[in-house]
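SEVERITY: medium
COMPONENT: batch folding queue
REPORTER: lab tech (J.R.)

DESCRIPTION
The queue accepted two submissions in a row. Attaching both inputs and their returned C-alpha cells so the on-call engineer can compare them side by side.

ATTACHMENT 1
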Amino acid sequence: MIVKKFHQFIHLERGPKNTAIIDFLKNNIFQVENEVIDKFLNGKYSEISDFIRKATEEELIIEIDNKRWIPHLSFDSETNLNADFSFELEIEEGINPSLIKYKLKYFEIFKIIFYGKRNPPKFFTSTKIIKKEKNFIQCIKLSEITGEFWRISESLYSFNKKYNSCWGKKIAITKDNKIRPCIFSEIIIGDLQKDDIYDMLEKAKKYWLITKDRIKKCKDCELRYVCFDCREIVKRKTNDLYASNPYCKYNPYKGIWEN
C-alpha cells in the first residue's frame, strides 16, 4: 500500500490550535490546523485535498510503501549542566583586558562580542572577536514576532529547546566589572573583580535555562523554539522575568496572528 508521509527533515510541533511544520531542509515553516494534520497522519487524504496539493508543491511529502520506515529528526530535551564551561562572552569598551584574561583563562570562550567604537584589545588569540555598537533597538526589532522567521535551522532549534535563545551560554561584562546575562541587562549576576568566577558561572546558568517551556503562553505555542526571546525586554516591560513577549502578535490558543 502506498502512503504519503513527510520527508525525514520535517519536524512537527503541535500547539493548542495549529501544528508547525518545520522544514529543516529548506529552512521553512508552515502552520496548519491540528485537524488537518491528524487527517493526513491517518491517511484521510481525500478530505484534505487542498493541503495535499500545497504540501506537494512545497515538496514536504513523499509517497512510499506502507512498510518502509522513514528516519525522522529527534531532539534531545535534556540539558547537561555538568558540561564544560564554554560560553559566548560580551564585553563593553572600558573593561580591563588583563582582568578578563586572568579571570577567564581556564574557560572555553567560543566567541567574543566587543561593544565599543574603538578597536577591541586582544583578549584570547584563538577566539574570534566581533565588534558591534551598543544598540538595544535591534533587540526590540528582533522581538517583534509577526510570523517572519528567517533563522530556522536544526542547530538553532535544538539550542532553543535547551537554552534561552538570547541569554543561553552567554555572559556579559560591562565596563563597571559587573557580570550580567547580556550586555543590555540591568540584572547583575556578580562582580568580575570581587567575586569567584566559578560561582558566577553557576549563577548564570539560571538565566541560560529560561527556555520558552518556562514562559507563560509561550510554553503552549508550536512556534516557541523558532523565535527570538529577549527576557530583558520582557522584564523591563512587565517586571516579570517569566512573562510572555509583549511584542509577539501570535495567539496560540486561537491559532491566529493578531494586530
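ATTACHMENT 2
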Amino acid sequence: MAAHDVWSRALPEEAEFWRYWLTTDHRIARLSPGSADPGLIDPILDSAGPVIHILDVGAGPLTTLGANALAADYDILLHEAGISPPIRTLPMHGERLT
C-alpha cells in the first residue's frame, strides 16, 4: 500500500483523537496565553526582526506557539467544542514544503 493511502486511511482516526482531546482539559494549556515553550519560541523571537512568520507543521487544531488536510475538520471540532482559537489552522501539505 502506498504511503499516501496509509495516510489517507488514518485521517478519520486523527479527527476522532482531536475530538476527544478538545472536549477534555488537555486543550487548556494550548489556549492559555504564554503557553508556548520558552525554549522553543524565545530564541526565535530574540533573533527576529519586527515581523516574523512561523509555520507550525503538524500543529493540529491548536498551535503550541500560542499565537493541512484536516483543517476543515479541525474547524468543525473547534466549533463543536465552543473554542475560538487565537490562530486558526490552515490547510496545507507539510510533505510538499521545500
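NOTES FROM REPORTER
Residues 3-22 form the longest helix (20 residues).
No errors were logged for either attachment.
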